[in-house]
Amino acid sequence: MNEEQQFKRLATKVKVRRWLMTAVIAIVVMVIGGGSFVGYTKMASQKASTALNKYFDITHEILAPNIQYSDQYLENTSFFGGTLVSHQYKEIEGYRETWSPERANYSWTRGAQLPDMLNSADSNQQRTALYDRETAHKIPMFFNLKTVSPNIKPTQELKKVAVVKGHVAEIALTFKQPVTYRQIQDKLPANLHAVWYWIGISGHSDATLVDNNYLGVQGSQTGKLNAAKYRYFHKMLLAAKDKEGGYGDTFAYAGRYAKSHATLAQAKFTGVIVTGNSEAFKALKEANWIAASSVGYFQARTAIK
């Protein structure tokens, strides 16, 4: 083998080594880059799901009129995103009623996709009532007395309930004037329970056009509300005021209300959801402090709940 052949052979070996080194480097870069990409997408997805969980924590506290939630979990999860699901229900005097679940998507590219269709509702053809969109259960409505031409006119359904025997009812009462928690307790008979307290709505806004997205705080099943519960509610009102999504005006009002009603003693409520046996509502038939009443749950009592 002459020198020229040896040189060509050596040059070929050098080229092969360079190609191999380049290939190895490329593979290493791909592995590291791919791992970094997967790690980044996973971290971004976790950040988005955490933000969505916090958002649901807020809405469950301030935007759920007598609605409870039984769980909150992720489904269809991957490195790239998933869906946050929360199943909901109502409990009225020990009777449980299913309610529409809440769902919202998140992804590493778009972050937490804040829902703009919470508590969706549909009205009947006569425009006299609202119904939960998924379950078709009747919604107890509140009314803003400052609205000139509301989509649904204020209803007076309390008297209809009071003449029926053997039923359990859930009724939203809209007050003529905002009142304190203590005043509500003094006005209601002991066998009726104020389970949810409405803090009203901004200005002349139509309360019948917000679906079932009323702002308020949940009381106990016996109709009580304490200072600690209100403090947490107040905290969530403040947390909501900077949130985005489809509820900008509602959350802005939440912040304004929180600023001027820092404690339960200072709080004033524009309405309340009351539950109890139908016969007990007779005591409110002539109440001059009630401007409107709207029935939600209304079913015959049974021996087994």
Automatic annotation (TrEMBL):
Keywords: Membrane, Transmembrane, Transmembrane helix. InterPro entries: Sigma_reg_C_dom, Sigma_reg_N. It holds the Pfam family Sigma_reg_N. Residues 8-96 form the Sigma factor regulator N-terminal domain. The chain crosses the membrane at residues 20-40. Residues 164-296 form the Sigma factor regulator C-terminal domain. It comes from the Bacteria. This is Anti-sigma factor.
